[in-house]
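Worked example

This section walks through a single chain of length 159. The input is the sequence exactly as stored; nothing has been trimmed or padded.
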Amino acid sequence: MQQTSEELAAYARTLAELASTQVPSQHLGGICRKLSQHYRALGILLREADVNRFFHWLIQSALTRRYFPERCQSDENFSSPYRRANLVGPFFDAVAATQNMARKIATLSAKTHLAGEEYEDDFAYAHFLHLLVDFVGPDKAALVAALDQFEEVLDGGSG
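Given that input, the structure is written out below as tokens.
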């Protein structure tokens, strides 16, 4: 397990260096997705039950997810398939680490289903969760609409 953690850490460092070299955002999505996954794995594979280190890795995952759509906004790149809402792992990492970052990730995530890039039911589920973290007060009509979309797709509506 120690060797696996070391390999994950080495690969994560490589991905982080690549992501920080100003790669255009259209090529950054896959890198950031892999980096978030590796950060989460590093937290899960801790040999000692060190809560602070576990949360550290979850926060790194969430920061990575936040970084990508921010870069997309600054590059005016709104067509990347990696902006899709259903990439919820880092969002859950932010929620688990009790970071307000979950709301920022939700704000930056796609607000509409990206056909051909994600299943519509996955989008509706993720969008519902993103709406729930609005600490000012969730938009009840939007929550109902997301649930209705989810139910319609599960009942055989659009796929």
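What to look for: The helical segments are 2-19, 29-44, 51-75, 89-96, 101-108, 120-132, 140-154.
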